[in-house]
Amino acid sequence: MKLDTSGLESAAPVWGAPSELVDGFSVAPSFEVPNTTDFDGFQKEAIQMVKPAKGTTTLAFIFKEGVMVAADSRASMGGYISSQSVKKIIEINPYMLGTMAGGAADCQFWHRNLGIKCRLHELANKRRISVTGASKLLANILYSYRGMGLSVGTMIAGWDETGPGLYYVDSEGGRLKGMRFSVGSGSPYAYGVLDNGYRYDMSVEEAAELARRAIYHATFRDGASGGVASVYYVGPNGWKKLSGDDVGELHYKYYPVMPSTVEQEMVEVAGA
Amino acid sequence: MARYDRAITVFSPDGHLFQVEYALEAVRKGNAAVGVRGTDNVVLGVEKKSAAKLQDSRSARKIVSLDDHVALACAGLKADARVLINRARIECQSHRLTVEDPVTVEYITRYIAGLQQKYTQSGGVRPFGLSTLIVGFDPYSGVPSLYQTDPSGTFSAWKAHATGRNSNSMREFLEKNYKETSGQETVKLAIRALLEVVESGGKTIEVAVMTKEHGLRQLEEAEIDAIVAEIEAEKVAAEVAKKAPAAPKET
To answer: Which of A65, A135, A258, B117 would bridge A167 by S-S if both were Cys, CB 3.0 to 4.6 A apart?
Structure first.
């Protein structure tokens, strides 16, 4: 009789460890192979189909007071803007945030799943999970689905016992620790503004303004980014949403319309 | 009653799992083991059956480390212990890999206890015939802890505990004489508890001390002999003090 011991197993498949009583090997997740003549080509096509879809701009950076996380809110399907009000900053738990880039469903689902795992860790170990641990859990899950078409480019930002933490995790299975990240089609533009204006010892207001400006500039030049620039701050007491400004309005705030000198003026002439 | 003790998965009418209870009997026949928690260290002591002359005593260590900051001693079937220790060591590393953090003592104790419990609820297997004493330091708070698991899969934290042969006498001694100690005093307390049931000498006991800075340190035979001598001397002095009449007060 095979017992359901999934509750006692650690999240990552530990290869080679005899985790079953009777000799059973932990099976890698798999799906039915489609019926094609050229399976490898089909796989490549499937991956290409989701690859360019990271039409978004998200960014996060660590500074003296904590972590600043910002994102736009546009969802595009090719040239069609399907939504201007997507929530791209996902609240995993009161002290950890995740950003969404790539497949919206993939990001949302796996972030919620990560939230479950974090809570179970808390209950089992009577202490909060670290940002390192949470990002590792997510990275391990994404790695085990590697090659199956998940499209996730996310940043896990949070505050734990060791202070502020920021990790970049993607669906290739990569996981990077860093101080500044930007993900999405608008990221080059955001990086330009972010790298230029970044200082470690900024105040919360200065950092929020930098994040907002970087998102705005990305939405200005990148067609796949737009909508509302949301800015969140993660501090020792958890995250807090600081602002959500429409980028159109931000444009006129940064570049207000100046009265220009009139060269020629139209004058009303009495009708002939 | 005999009908209910063949298979582990059968309860007796009065709610016993006989195989688990027989496993506890196996533990009671195993060598004595004691653990004492101090304010800045934890000490494990195990009775060593006199080594055969030709045996290399280092290969028969009874106190093992599970990770840099966690160690284990057990009483019962030593072959079962090896299997359990290997699984625990793998889990310690697996935990480091998945959450990039060392295990807490409570976590690994829970894991070992969970493993022991798994084997009490499955067909075709028997329970592990051993109780373990697990000691270590919490990697964050630096607090020392001592835990105990048994064949039924239960576990709990202790200030001081003993298991194996004559564990009742050792536990009584500890209950009478336990107080918060640190450093060498904790080692002495553990050895005194062991000496209640073991013939004295460095040859018959194995002692290891776990500190936050230095991890697990096995005490040399000579060290143990020295401490035993100290304890004997203290005992003799206490006897003399009891027998001698009270000194006349100075006026």
So the answer is: A135
How close, in Å, is residue B98 to chain A by CA atoms? Answer: 6
Phi and psi at residue A165, to the nearest 5°: -135, 140
What integer pLDDT is reported at residue B201 of this predicted model? 61
Contacts of A213 (CB under 8 A, 6+ apart): A193, A197, A254
Give me the catalytic one of A5, A36, A37, A56. Answer: A56
A56 is catalytic: yes
As a whole number of angstroms, the distance between CA B197 and CA B165 comes to 8
For residues B150 and B21, give the distance between their C-alpha atoms in angstroms, rounded to a whole number.
Answer: 10
Say if the ipTM goes beyond 0.90. no
Q: B215: helix, coil or strand? A: strand
Q: β-pairing, B215-218 with B205-211?
A: antiparallel
pLDDT along chain A (272 residues), means of 10: 54 47 52 73 68 78 96 88 90 92 88 92 89 94 89 93 93 93 94 96 95 96 94 95 94 89 81 68
Kindly state the helix (H) or strand (E) to which residue B233 belongs, with its residue range.
helix B221-243
Specify the higher pLDDT residue, B219 or A262: B219
Helix (H) and strand (E) counts for chain A?
6, 12
Q: What tokens appear for A135 in the block?
A: 């990002």
Q: Is B216 helix (H, G, I), strand (E, B) or coil?
A: strand
- Chain A residues with CB under 8 Å of B100 CB are 130, 132-133, 136
Q: Three-state SS string across A178-207, please? A: CCEEEECCCHHHHHHHHHHHCCCCCCHHHH
Q: Which of B98, B114, B140 sits opposite A136 (nearest CB)?
A: B98
Tell me the one-letter amino acid at B188.
K
- At A86, list the tokens: 């997507």
**Which chain B residue shows the shortest CA-CA distance from A15?**
B94
Q: State the DSSP code for B2.
A: G
Assigned token pair, B86: 């290997």
Integer CA distances (angstroms), A53 to A49, A77, A103, A168, B247, in order: 8, 8, 7, 18, 93
| Residues A168, A152 contacting (CB under 8 angstroms) | no
Q: Under an 8 Å CB criterion, which residues of B touch A?
A: 87, 90-91, 94-95, 97-101, 104, 106-107, 110-111, 114, 118-119, 121-125, 140
What angle (nearest 5°) sits at the alpha carbon of residue B129, between those of residues B124 and B135?
A: 130
Q: What is the pTM of this model?
A: 0.77
